[in-house]
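Researcher: Sequence recovery benchmark, item below. Answer with residues only.
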């Protein structure tokens, strides 16, 4: 177990390393002189002279070969130094740490909301397959999965903030500020989860051991909750982990629309201001979060079901 855990950690580190190389190279290989583009963004579009560009490149190490720049950046990251923001002059690590906590709070609230909605709905649809209830929830799930997050977020803000005045449409600081962003992300992933739970439960309910349990006189509800549901838990946990990672993607839009000070909004702000150290740090944090979440989910599954330790 420990040997396998060590191997997976090594693979995860290699994957994060590969992603960091790709992100670093993509930013540096953009068309045009990299240092000149950054200077123009800091000078409100004014074209800098050659001497200024050369001095800026030398100060930030942009005149060195690309592999040397990457290794220098990687060495500083390994020491906990993500650089300094070109815009604010603050350490990037402080900004990212502060924003990451806000995003994790929102992500956990959204995932909890998605599970609270999807698990009972999926179980009810599997318990009454083909019924009006099943068809109604199936239609709602498809509609929910088809609606873009930005449009859904605007509609909720229009209804609950501008029309009813119940909730704030932007900002943070109180629980009320988290309601609308949580609803947008949580309900957007609940459709996928509910349909998946329904499908997994229906497959389990068709297995021979379920017929045996029913032949022994167990009620349908007991068979569903205590025999079929535990067996679909690993599959549902896997999809939940993937959806949790997908939440970070949705945050880029939702945090920007609701002015939530998370890592998604920080990434958008850094892209608009061409704050290169901040862009690279956000890219690394999001990629590392995705890899680590999937790693934790895989090991949670092996702890729950030791039979899959050899294949996870």
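Model:
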């Amino acid at each position: 177990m420990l040997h396998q855990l060590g191997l997976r950690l090594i693979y995860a580190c290699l994957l994060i390393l590969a992603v960091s190389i790709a992100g670093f190279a993509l930013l540096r290989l953009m068309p045009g002189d990299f240092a000149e583009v950054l200077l123009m963004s800091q000078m409100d579009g004014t074209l800098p002279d050659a001497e200024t560009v050369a001095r800026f490149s030398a100060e930030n190490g942009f005149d060195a070969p690309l592999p040397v720049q990457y290794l220098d950046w990687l060495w500083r990251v390994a020491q906990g130094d993500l650089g300094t923001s070109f815009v604010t002059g603050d350490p990037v690590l402080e900004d990212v740490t502060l924003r990451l906590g806000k995003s994790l709070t929102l992500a956990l609230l959204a995932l909890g909301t998605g599970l609270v909605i999807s698990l009972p709905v999926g179980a009810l649809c599997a318990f009454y397959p083909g019924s009006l209830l099943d068809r109604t929830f199936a239609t709602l799930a498809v509609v929910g999965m088809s609606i873009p997050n930005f449009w859904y977020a605007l509609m909720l803000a229009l209804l609950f903030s501008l029309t009813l005045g119940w909730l704030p449409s932007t900002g943070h600081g109180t629980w009320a500020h988290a309601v609308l962003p949580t609803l947008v992300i949580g309900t957007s992933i609940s459709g996928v989860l509910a349909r998946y739970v329904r499908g997994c439960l229906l497959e389990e309910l068709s297995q021979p051991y379920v017929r045996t349990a029913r032949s022994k006189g167990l009620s349908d509800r007991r068979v569903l909750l205590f025999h079929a549901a535990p067996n679909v838990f690993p599959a549902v946990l896997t999809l939940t982990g993937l959806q949790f990672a997908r939440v970070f993607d949705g945050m880029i839009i939702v945090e920007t629309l609701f002015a939530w000070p998370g890592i998604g909004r920080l990434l958008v702000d850094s892209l608009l201001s061409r704050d290169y150290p901040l862009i690279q740090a956000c890219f690394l944090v999001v990629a590392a979060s995705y890899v680590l979440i999937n790693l934790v989910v895989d090991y949670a599954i092996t702890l729950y079901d030791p039979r899959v330790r050899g294949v996870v």
